[in-house]
From TrEMBL:
Keyword Hydrolase part of the UniProt annotation: no
Superkingdom: Bacteria
Subcellular location: Cell membrane
Keywords, in A-Z order: ATP-binding, Cell membrane, Membrane, Nucleotide-binding, Translocase, Transport
PROSITE patterns: ABC_TRANSPORTER_1, ABC_TRANSPORTER_2
Membrane topology: Peripheral membrane protein
The protein, known as: Energy-coupling factor transport system ATP-binding protein
Matches recorded under PANTHER family: ENERGY-COUPLING FACTOR TRANSPORTER ATP-BINDING PROTEIN ECFA1 (PTHR43553:SF24), HEAVY METAL TRANSPORTER (PTHR43553)
Domain ABC transporter residue range list: 5-238
Xref: CDD domains: ABC_cobalt_CbiO_domain1
Length: 276
């Protein structure tokens, strides 16, 4: 599969001599779902800003869809990427929710006669159909995030970056948005980069990257990275709920696997019960 993002020896400094991102390299294949984890201050949100050119790298290279990111082709590269930030207030432009979702479509030269249907589809997907004529600034934090997500989804980018984009949603809303994003990833091969604290979301990714002090300290499949209790604790990350339960059972003499999936754990316990 083609590599849609290639990062080589990337560094960034907010202040001279203090590297927020410290010589990191990684590839992301087209259609991958990548979760980037790390505690506050690890540098993960800085990576998101570097990938869309909001910050200028100190060293290294970023190649997106075969174009190296620089000042000359910044807008061409951005045409391939949609980003949803942790604070949705930074993204609102329209006077109403409808206008805000329409803004990106207008920039992409979507015909006026097609916009209404597209806006309705994505407003419905994020549960905001009843708010299309409301002012975005008067919505709750969770509603604002839904609108920001709808605006990005409607633009149909090749790459979507979610920078803590579900942090203001309740658990049900978070599950709904994660389901939509996963569906886009699986059915339309949209590449997803999720900057997140949510271990339960990360376990559904194709690849997990852990950052600490601006360096990549772990990278691989979720089942390998997120089952390493020692590393997760070392880098101040939570442990997946199913693994917590499994470890608790093991301490009490009940043999289970170190699964990340609660359904798998329940099946194992049922089988153990039937053997008695």
């Amino acid at each position: 599969m083609d590599k849609i993002i290639r990062v080589r020896d990337l560094s960034f400094e907010y202040e001279p001599g203090l590297k927020t991102i410290d010589h990191i390299s990684f590839d992301i294949e087209q259609g991958d779902y990548v979760a980037i984890l790390g505690h506050n201050g690890s540098g993960k949100s800085t990576i998101a800003k570097l990938l869309i050119g909001l910050l200028e790298k100190s060293e290294g290279s970023i190649i997106i869809n075969d174009d190296e990111l620089n000042l000359d082709n910044l807008y061409k590269v951005r045409d391939n990427i949609g980003i949803v930030f942790q604070n949705p207030d930074n993204q609102f432009i329209g006077a109403t929710v409808r206008d805000d979702i329409a803004f990106g479509l207008e920039n992409n030269c979507v015909p006026q006669e097609d916009m209404g249907e597209i806006i309705n589809i994505y407003a419905s997907k994020v549960g905001m159909s009843d708010f299309l004529d409301h002012e975005p600034t008067k919505l709750s934090g969770g509603q604002k995030q839904r609108v920001a997500i709808a605006g990005i989804l409607a633009m149909n980018p090749k790459i979507i970056i979610l920078d803590e984009a579900t942090s203001m949603l309740d658990p049900m809303g978070r599950r709904e948005i994660n389901t939509i994003v996963k569906e886009l990833n699986q059915k339309k091969e949209v590449t997803i980069i999720s900057i997140t604290h949510d271990i339960e979301e990360a376990k559904n990714a194709d690849q997990v990257v852990i950052l600490n002090s601006g360096k990549i300290v772990a990278q691989g499949k979720p089942k390998d990275i997120l089952s390493n209790e020692t590393n997760l604790r070392k880098y101040e990350l939570d442990i997946p709920f199913a693994l917590k339960v499994a470890l608790g059972l093991q301490k009490n003499g009940i043999k289970t696997s170190k699964t990340l999936d609660m359904e798998v754990l329940i099946k194992e316990l049922c089988q153990l019960h039937l053997k008695k």
